[in-house]
Amino acid sequence: MRKKWLGLSLSLMLAAGIAGCGGNGNNGNGDTANDAAGGGTAAPAAETGGSASEPVRLKYWTDDRHDQEYIKELINKFNETNGDHIQVELTVMSENYTQSVDIAFSSNQAPDLLRLKSGNTAEFVKKGYLAPIDGYLTDDMKTEFGSLVFDNVNRFDGKLYSLPNTGLTLRLVYNKDLFAKAGIANPPASLQEMVDDAKKITAAGKSEGIYGFALNFKSPKSAFERSIREILSLSGYQGLGFDPKTGQFDFAPYSQVVEYFKQMYQDGSILPGAETLDIDPLRAQFAAGKIGMYLSFSTEPGVYMDQFPTEINWGGALAPTLDGQIKGTSEIVSAGTWLGISAKSDHQDAAWKFMQYMYGDEILKTYHEKGFGIAIVPSIVEQAKNPEINGMEGFLVGEHDSLWPASPSVTPEGSNYGDAFFKYILSGGDLKAITADLNTRYNAALSKAVEKGEITVTPDPAFDPSKPQGK
């Protein structure tokens, strides 16, 4: 694993070279802000703190819940030890994070710091929510993070807005005891096996409220981004509906996976009430031994250590593919961003002090070792030990994991693909017509974005899904 990550900077460069504005979708013990990231001092000379009686108060918003207890510890330590009288307040949002950020900025109640991900950074930059951080970087930080700064990932129009910390792998999360109880020896390799296994688990445990499969369908797009995305990338298709070979959206492969999900719904193998299920209630049900399997990110081991401690025997495995054959690689996501500063903040220098503290080596190293994410910063990879946390062994980067080219982020007129496909799962309809309609609307939105100069798309007819990093 270590060798694989030492070559990551080159791989990231290759992945980022295929342009797309937007993307696919994530620490520690520093002493003070001045000790962080090589011990340099931020470039701006302005006062960053307040008086002892009037501290500078910063608001930090995130939609990460898997690491919230650890982040609270770090914030408490920063609040107690920084010499600039800066006090940071953490707010952990739910699935409506992006909408909440939009509302906050439109009503002049924006936070000072934001959790950034590859799926929202481009949009936040375009809307003017973020302040560039180029002028704050110390020489040590430029050296440490320089190989991981890429256009359309964390740098836009020549300005840098965030730095990386970790990446996330995607896996099938399954209850080994429930599999054994249903007479299933191994996690499913194909989607048909997943359908069959879900049915068997439900038959064996329904009287006890146990079902074979679940997803957080309260937000269909979020549910599919942690499930179908992984299935498709391993099957040889880009997991968000975009085809790098043609430079167009094509949801036909997506629709094939949706048929299997619909079958599980018709079989009664999906946890009842999944239509309104958010990810944390799902996790609580899984921790209680009521769900046979679901798909999600490498954040899950940390969740079941801290947020929903559980005694069940569970693990992570590669997701099933369309036909049981691995023809692509599992996508490593959210590998270019972490924290960002609000353009509306009245205390940007103070916000940088906290951001610099959070990017300290000890914090990044410990974040990896605690299993909250998989380190991608080369200097941290060299220092960090593999996480000693139950279940993490199934999520570590292996031969079937890699980075994929960035997918363009567009907003079509009408419903998004998550809502459209989930409606089909629940109510049926003409799947070919639904797919054709999505292709038409998404490619129309893509064309408009290209015409406006918001996105640059370069088709790559020679793209090889088994080697998306060009290896």
Brief account:
The chain has 471 residues and is α/β, with parallel strands linked by helices. It has 18 helices and 17 strands.
Report on this model:
- The protein has helices at residues 2-6, 8-16, 68-81, 97-106, 121-126, 139-145, 176-181, 191-205, 220-225, 228-235, 252-267, 279-287, 300-307, 348-358, 361-369, 378-383, 417-427, 431-451; strands spanning 56-62, 86-92, 113-115, 130-131, 155-156, 159-160, 166-167, 170-175, 211-213, 242-243, 248-249, 291-297, 314-317, 330-331, 339-342, 374-375, 401-402.
- Strand 10 (242-243) and strand 11 form a beta hairpin.
- By secondary structure, it is an alpha/beta fold.
- It is globular and about 65 Å long.
- The chain is built from 18 helices and 17 strands.
- The two termini are 16 Å apart.
- The longest helix has 21 residues, at 431-451.
- Helix content is 38%, strand content 13%.
- A 5-stranded mixed sheet has the order 2-1-3-15-4.
Question: Could you give the topology of this structure?
Answer:
Blueprint: H1 2-6, H2 8-16, E1 56-62, H3 68-81, E2 86-92, H4 97-106, E3 113-115, H5 121-126, E4 130-131, H6 139-145, E5 155-156, E6 159-160, E7 166-167, E8 170-175, H7 176-181, H8 191-205, E9 211-213, H9 220-225, H10 228-235, E10 242-243, E11 248-249, H11 252-267, H12 279-287, E12 291-297, H13 300-307, E13 314-317, E14 330-331, E15 339-342, H14 348-358, H15 361-369, E16 374-375, H16 378-383, E17 401-402, H17 417-427, H18 431-451
Parallel strand pairs: 1-2, 1-3, 9-12, 14-17
Antiparallel strand pairs: 3-15, 4-15, 5-6, 7-16, 8-12, 8-13, 10-11
